[in-house]
Amino acid sequence: xxxxxxxxxxxxxxxxxxxxxxxxxxxxxxxxxxxxxxxxxxxxxxxxxxxxxxxxxxxxxxxxxxxxxxxxxxxxxxxxxxxxxxxxxxxxxxx
Length: 95
Prior knowledge:
Order of helices and strands: EEEEEEEE
Number of helices: 0
Largest sheet: 5 strands, antiparallel
CATH class: Mainly Beta
Number of strands: 8
Shape: globular
Number of domains: 1
């Protein structure tokens, strides 16, 4: 993703049941660290080709975050009733 771009970062989620009714948060942090409480941002759900995706608008033009050049890792936090999975997604680069 280019540092001047504002777009939704979309992360596919596979689950035994549809997770889109549950609250979801995303943390975007340097790829070698773990998220702290302040790193989490409320996210939304979208479905692409019948696959649920958590999404967060990022970038300098109205995004929740503007990311510097470097390697970033998204983390998902899904509050799914009695389960509360924290999911580490693949890292990506901001150029």
